[in-house]
Design brief:
heterodimer; A: 189 residues; alpha/beta; Rossmann fold; 5-stranded parallel β-sheet; 3-stranded antiparallel β-sheet; 4 helices; 8 strands; globular; B: 312 residues; 2 domains; 36% helix
Chain lengths: 189, 312
């Protein structure tokens, strides 16, 4: 029976995006996706649980507004692909739900914060186990640096230099009742 | 809710939250069975040993598939053809297997307490896959998952468990699990096959099939375990079947139209269940088997994935 380490407490240090800026960033990413792929043909979104899924749905809604195309949105849970099973406590499996074939599609992977790149590494393995897409592209609302793997996003909402001890919290209406991104720092005990 | 136990030995010792965690985890893992490539890397490099001292079709196969779909290496040991036939004791055999550093040992044995004995003796995780007439927790978990998927919830459901309760580890594990989740359980069978302490587990008792199945959401029929019986418990299989066998006619006359029929297998067709009921529209017997794989994946994952797990 491993005793759980006490979770560090964080306090808000600075606001990075407000509701308007967050929405503008998503609008820009939607346009960039259409520009880079020459339209919406054969695109599909896959959001990473939990907030990546909400962001993927918002991007799909933007593209439907701009282009009139309704793109499929899937949900990916990468817990079974993590490289740190047994180091983080009880694995919480919430399930993958991608109710369409990703074969011959360009999959746009959506996550809220890009940090070490390990989550995306796991997500790439998870997607490739489901089929062979034409291409996989990566969209992140925040890129906070400190990569530990050679992974580079295709679409970035905001580049945000951070220190490793800080944490970036993306708060979305669907989960947190507000649209806002803040930097948090640990409270010294 | 977090999982901290080294072993899964009995439903009796689990808290309701732990049972729900196991069922939730299994529910999310069911999706893997629908994939073209049925393999995820979660337990890569882990070793699971199936140590079976009793015959088994469903349980051993589904633990093996579960381990393989999670990328663990699965080794099957059966007592016949092993050093057991040269006189090696159970604990000695298990210690020798443990010396080869498995992460999880799944054990089935005809003696109650066999899994708990290994859990004390061995450093690796132990899963009880049936110990005598004591418990069979993964069967209860897959029954619970099946019930929740079909009924949508556990709250207030009433389950009748019918037949050979005395020899049934499935009944014992299910009574513990269902009572903890707030369900009502009625056990029914001939008096010789109802154990005396069963009310202490919180189950009601009925001695007439027609009464027991009247107002329940689920009917769980048990196998008449003739291999465990000493003579004289029932007058004859034919008489048992006549009074305690579930037929379409009895269902139509006494049970609710939305009742689920479950059976842990193997079915004695024509004894406790008529073939028309076993294969009929109320039956979820094969759904139970499919969900068994997901449940065993969930169990292996939570045991091997717990914080500070051996070899984690």
């Amino acid at each position: 029976m491993g005793a759980a380490a006490p979770a560090p407490r964080y306090r808000e240090k600075a606001q990075v995006l407000d509701e308007t800026a967050l929405d503008r960033a998503l609008t820009r990413i939607a346009h960039e996706i259409l520009e880079k792929n020459g339209g919406a043909k054969d695109l599909a979104f896959v959001g990473l649980r939990t907030r990546g899924v909400s962001l993927a749905h918002r991007l799909a809604a933007k593209i439907a507004q701009i282009d009139g195309t309704t793109l499929p949105v899937g949900t990916l849970d990468i817990t079974l692909y993590r490289d740190d099973l047994g180091m983080r406590g009880t694995p919480v499996i919430r399930g993958t739900d991608i109710p369409f074939s990703i074969k011959d599609k360009t999959v746009i992977l959506v996550d809220d914060v890009l940090f070490t790149g390990r989550t995306i590494r796991a997500a790439l393995d998870a997607i490739i186990d489901l089929g062979r897409p034409t291409a996989i592209q990566l969209a992140c609302l925040i890129d906070r640096g400190h990569r530990e793997l050679p992974i580079r996003p295709d679409y970035i909402g905001k580049n945000l230099p951070t220190s490793r001890r800080e944490s970036v919290a993306v708060r979305l209406r669907e989960h947190d009742g507000e649209d806002r991104v803040v930097i948090e720092e640990p409270v010294e005990a | 809710m977090s999982w901290t136990r080294k072993d899964l030995l009995a439903m009796r010792e689990l808290e309701a939250g732990e049972i729900v965690l196991l069922v939730d985890t299994a529910a999310s893992l069911q999706e893997i069975a629908t994939r073209d490539i049925k393999k995820v890397p979660a337990l890569r490099g882990k070793t699971v040993v199936n140590l079976f001292y009793e015959s088994s079709t469903r349980t051993r196969t589904s633990f093996e598939i579960a381990g393989k779909w999670l990328s663990a290496d699965v080794i099957n040991f059966s007592a016949s053809g092993s050093s057991t036939s040269k006189g090696e004791s159970f604990v000695d055999t298990a210690k020798n297997i443990a010396a080869m550093s498995p992460d999880v040992v799944v054990v089935r044995h005809s003696s109650a307490g066999a899994a708990a004995l290994l859990a004390r003796e061995l450093p690796c995780s132990i899963v009880n896959a049936g110990d005598g007439a004591h418990e069979h927790p993964t069967q209860a978990l897959l029954d619970l998952l099946t019930i929740r998927e079909k009924k949508g919830h556990f709250d207030g459901l009433h389950v009748a468990i019918v037949g050979d309760i005395a020899h049934s580890r499935v009944a014992r594990s299910n009574i513990h699990g269902m009572r903890k989740l707030g369900m009502t359980v009625t056990v029914a069978g001939p008096p010789t096959l109802i154990p005396p302490f069963v009310q202490e587990l919180g189950a009601k008792v009925s001695y007439r099939l027609e009464d027991a199945i009247g107002d329940v959401d689920v009917i769980m029929m048990l196998r008449l375990q003739q291999e465990r019986m000493t003579a004289g418990l029932i007058p004859s299989v034919r008489e048992y079947s006549r009074y305690w066998g579930l037929t379409l006619d009895k269902l139509a006359r006494h049970a609710r139209p939305d009742v689920l029929i479950m059976h842990p297998g193997p079915v004695n067709r024509g004894v406790e269940l008529s073939p028309e009921v076993a294969d009929g529209p109320y039956s979820v017997i094969l759904d139970q088997v499919s969900r068994g794989v997901a449940v065993r994946m969930g169990v292996l994952l939570l045991l091997a994935g717990r914080k500070g797990g051996d070899g984690g």
